[in-house]
Amino acid sequence: MADALVTIATREWRRRDALLRAMVARKQWPLERAQAAWWRWLSIALRTDVEISALPSDVAVQLNTMFALVGRLTDADRRSMLADDYADRHEWEPELGTATNRAVERQTQEPGETTLQQARDLIALSRALDVAVPWRAAEPAAQPERKAA
After folding, report:
1. pLDDT per residue over 115-145, tens digit each?
2. Could you give the CA distance from residue 8 to residue 126 in angstroms, rounded to a whole number?
3. Nearest 5°: phi and psi at 142?
4. Which tens digits make up the pLDDT trace of 27-78?
5. Where do the segments described as Disordered lie (predicted)?
6. Would you say 122 and 103 are in contact if contact means Cβ atoms under 8 Å apart?
7. Which residue from 136, 78, 128 is spatially nearest to 107, judged by alpha carbons?
8. Can you list the pairs that 12-19 forms with residues at least 24 positions away whose Cβ atoms lie under 8 Å?
């Protein structure tokens, strides 16, 4: 995948990891719910070539161990296998689609550089992973002019 996608994936993984940890710390989410979301976002991160340095150390060790045990697999194959262990497509795809929709909605309600960047990042990840996200215009379409009587 392109370097830009790696940067986006790494930024989004770090953001999601911090957000989920903060939600548990503030007791907004129970630990079990946050962990389930964390596994789904980790699966997304692995599929989008997130930087190894951004991953938890035990995940990096697992990737390296897979290389030692099954040397013929490419990095993408190892990441995909490990991502499948954490969450299947039917688990992470709705998570990414919903997050993308929320980010686009937030950008339309609160336009700004941060909300725009988050929406663009999630749209890029959704496209890279073939996640269908219903498109909705940020502004209503112009009404056609009426003919004069």
Report:
1. 999 999 999 999 999 998 866 554 555 666 6
2. 11
3. -70, 140
4. 999 999 999 999 999 999 999 888 888 888 888 888 878 766 666 778 888 8
5. 94-115
6. yes
7. 136
8. 12/41, 12/44, 12/45, 12/121, 12/122, 12/125, 13/41, 13/42, 13/44, 13/45, 13/50, 13/54, 13/55, 14/54, 15/118, 16/41, 17/41
Task: Give me the helix-helix angle, 113-128 and 3-25, nearest 10°.
Answer: 110
Angle at 100 between CA 97 and CA 101, to 5 degrees: 85
Residue position matching structure tokens 């630990």: 31
Enumerate residues 6+ apart whose C-beta is below 8 A from 17: 38, 41
Q: Within a 13 Å sphere around the CA of 98, how many CA atoms are in the beta-carbon half?
A: 9
Which residue, chain included where needed, has tokens 């959704």? 126
- What pLDDT is stored for residue 146 in this prediction? 62
